[in-house]
Amino acid sequence: MDSVQEEPNVKSQETASNVQDKPKSYIKERVISSVVLMLFTCANNSSGPVFTQYIHSRYEDVYSNGTESSSNKQSSCLANNSEEADEVQVHVQQSTSYEILKLCLCFQIPSVIVNMVVGSYSDHIGRKLLFVLPMLGCTCKYVGFILVVKFHLNLNFLIIGTLLEGFSGSTSTFVLANMAYAADVTKTHATRTFAIILTDSSVSIAFALGQLMTGFLIEKLGYFYPSVIYTALILLATTIVIFGLTETVKKTEVKELSPIVHFKKVFGYYVNKRRDNKRSVFIACVIVFALLYIGLNGKATIEILYQLGRPFCWNPLKIGYYGAYSIVFMAICGLVAIKLGSACVRVEILSVTGMFLLMGSLILEGLASTDAMLYSVPLVASISTVSVPVARSVLSSMVAAHEQGAIFSSMATVETLCGAIGSSAFASLYRATVGTMRGMAFLGIAAVVFIAAIIKIVVIVKSPRQPGYDLFPSPPEDQNAQTPDHNQYGTLPK
Q1: Based on CB atoms within 10 Å of each CB, which residue in 17, 309, 318, 421 is the most buried?
Q2: pTM here?
């Protein structure tokens, strides 16, 4: 009898042999990883508003014959309402969107290549590398920006730092690191969903703080000192990771160094015949995830530019207030929805509801003509933030514990590739329509989100929940984790 009882323990140890036991101070590790996440997010995501507004101000200099200095933080689009001034603003918007498009492609295309294999390698060499690489890349990006601002260099010099960020894996690799880290220490579907929602919400809060800080700093200090401050935050986060974060994966020998092997490991889920019962659902969920990222990245690329132009003509402070308000409000709504709503309906239904609300908010934003209409956009979007983390959690729950790095690498690759597609497509659409119907790009994004919602509905209808049946059953490790003998990783408090 003793030998029979010991057998499951041995099997469990073999299955998760490359993952360490739960750290002795689990709360300490969660606090440290959350601090790192928020520092990086606050600093890195603030680069979008800073870069966009700086490039916009530089082109205002060019098209106004140098009468306004780029160190002047206030937009000049309110200075003159003549037809000639309208034409100048259209040129400024078109040129700025083109520069932003170039920078987006410079960091997104290289990071697609990096994310194809880096997550799979992390299952052997550890998670810390996934944290450190994008932080070093972000530092290079900010250093390049500081030099351009300080010496008033040609805007093309921004491409150098942006390319270095791209080859570091960029934001997608950092998100991959956090998601894989959360999956390492949560072994059931429910706790993993909450952990990923919590991680996304931490990102949202830090993003909001960065937006608010950016508005104040640009308004008071210009563009040079905010970038110095954000560089310091990135270096602080890097130091904390190197010296304070506990590794959750035991380093093992990587038997196959060829990227092709890891490429097959990352994308094997799509063609693996052993997963026929899950493969169609898996692919459908990936398509939904991809469409959402095409839309969300397209929106992020053009939204600040949209606010800078007429009829809004917002200054950095207004942009910062709006960014903080919208992000915090939607993050809170998403958390409340996932905690309270999931007790009544499936999280997949909440996800679809969020997609339709997002679609409505995009239509409102595209048709907005007053500040009040823009401020109503987050109210309509409300719980739309649940859609992406639910998609992440569903995909994560469909693979084993030792494959978490690979699946999140797959998601990061899809995310980055779709980010490049969304940024280029909708920045180009915005550039083409800014002189006629400025909000057309937002209506196009709404159409993409609508397609994602329809696909998700089809998946839910074709796979109804039956008594004792779970559409997304947890892998065997999840069942083991529920017993005292196999609960090596701990769970997040509910």
Answers
A1: 309
A2: 0.80
